Structure formats: structure tokens, C-alpha cells
């Protein structure tokens, strides 16, 4: 998250540094204390039944055949039908050839000889000694590992040490999400509070790790934290005004069936907070860096001039980022958007449906929080950058007269000829 927008910032006056420490350190301590209070307890039973055994294997033979007729497909359409022979690499039948039916139905994997697949072992409840295998999906571990290696290598090659720090920040973000935010919400804690505390933890770790412990980074931290609070308040007001319940997607409905105590309305707000964080920190870091660079390039700029100039940069940044937010939400919900396009209801009813209203609220609230981040961070950066600057001294009362001009070769020549020094020389 974020990017390196500037060279090292000029040194900050000691008084300004002490003030930033006095503000940032208590906020960080408060965030850590809140995280400890909300930390998920390991006393919740796992949801769902027993896990089905899954083993790796390689397809060695595929035999297709016509599908038998059914009441839904009298001509035997559908499929594919047939069997696949798989060399099991794990489990009780490791090293043996096992036969499985070809996967069929919507979304079923299409297998060919040589494919690396995942087998699931099914036990007959009536006779536990009878078991069979089905193909669940393809193995994706190796391609994903190579893609992640390429991803990390590209970041480090381009960003060098800063790229390595960015990878560390990304790992910390996932650790906080998987270790605190998701278990905390799943454990019944208030989703909005957990999301704000988790986002604040991610912000502190990622920004300081990626951009260093500087006054400029502290300004970005304060701007991001303030914008997150604004986003949370706006989200709460918007979801209440539109009467959103959080049941706008099939995933939310499924979650409510397995974990009925999860607050889906709060979960919607938590998603808005977490989704806004990645864009917010980029904007706040950019604004803090812009003010610093402008002050470094022209030390004569006043606080008001710095604010106005950096705000113009922020407007251009916001104009492109708003489109990014809307397209990100639209891309994540593309299948459901296609279903809505095929809907026969009037457009007004489609736009006010629970699902689409939820996406509109997400985009609008995230954008409003983003807009609030620009003036907030820019004003903080202008104050910090100009703090401790010496006021210009008074102008001299009268210009200092120039020193007398030394004798020139013309004066010496006139004296040698007996004419004395020139009148110009005496002046």
C-alpha cells in the first residue's frame, strides 16, 4: 500500500517533532489497547461438519461416454460423462490408480491427461468400509507460488529497499486481517469497531515501515486516521438512512446461515472501512509529500500558498481515484451486475434494490472519505512544514554605499604623462 513519492524530507524542528510524538504515540497506544481488548478468544467451536479428506493426484486416463437420459434431459444431454483414472499421490491409496467419475455440472473442472488435481474421499454412511473418490478441483499451489515469486521479484527489483519494505507491509496487512479482523468479527465482536481498530493497526505498521519514521509520515498517519473516522461516521449515517441490512449478497445470506450471531449491517460498514484504507493511505502520503516538496523547492511560500498549491494536486489525484474506487467495486460484483442488467424490472427499482444500493453506498462513502482526506492532510502538512520557520528580518534603512573603485590603468597613465588623475577617478 502506498508509494514512495519523494526524496528524504528536510529535517523537522525539534519542537515540531516533540509535538507529533506527543500526538501519535498515545494514538498508537490506544489502538494497541483496543486491539488487545477486542482480540478474538479461542473458545469458539468451528462452524460446519467434519472436513472431507483431500489428496493430491495426477490424471492418467480419461474415458468419455454418452450421458444417460434423465427426466430433465431426455436425450442424454449435459455432462461430460465418463470416468477418469487418477494416480493417487497421497492418502491410503497413495501410489495406486483410482477411478473417479468425470466432474459434471456448472463450474465443474474440465480434466485432461496429465492434470494435477485434488481428490476427495467419500465414505458410504451405510458401510464405512466402502469408499469412493471424486475430483474436487485442480491443484493451484505451484502456479500461485510462481506468480507470487514474480510479483515479489518485480517489486524488489523496481523499489529495492523500499520495495522490500512494501512487501513487509503487505505481509503485516494480511497478518492483521487474518489474525485479528476476521476472527474478531467471526467471534461476535462489533464489526465496525474491529474494522476501525484493525485498519488503524495496518496503517501504523505499513506507513511507518514503508515510508520511515519521519514527520511527513506522521502527518500522513494522522490524515489517514482522521479520514477513517470520517468514513466510518458517514457509512453509519448512509446505511441507516438507506435502511441497508447487509443481506444484499448471496455470500452474506450464506454466512448468516452458518453464523447467525454475526452483525451483517456492521460487516457492511467494516467492508467499507477496510476497502477505503488502501486508497486513503496513498492519497494522504501523496499530499504530505507534495507539501514537503513544494516547501523544499520554494522556501518563500507561505502556509496558505502551500495549502492552495498542494490542494490543486490533490484535486487531480481525487479525480482519477474516484473512478478507481467505482470500477473496483463494479469489477468485484460483475456477475451480479450482469444479473441485474438482465432483470426485467424498471431501472428505478433495480437501482434501489438492496444489492445495488449497497454498492452505491460503498462507492459514495469511500469517495467522501477520500475527499475529506485531501484538505485534512494538506492542512496538517502545511502547518508542520512551516512550523519553526524563521520570520524574514527587517529591510535595511538605506542601501550600503559601494566601496571606492580601485585605481585603474588609465589613472596611472595620466599621472605618468603629468596630467594627474582623471576627474572620473575622484568620483
From TrEMBL:
Coiled-coil regions, chain positions: none
Domain of life: Bacteria
Signal peptide: none
InterPro entries, sorted: YibE_F (IPR012507)
Pfam families: YibE_F
Feature: compositional bias, Pro residues: 393-407
Transmembrane parts of this sequence: 20-39, 141-158, 164-185, 192-213, 219-238, 318-340, 360-384
Region (Disordered): 389-427
Keyword terms: Membrane, Transmembrane, Transmembrane helix
Name by which UniProt lists this protein: YibE/F family protein
Originating organism: Micromonospora chalcea
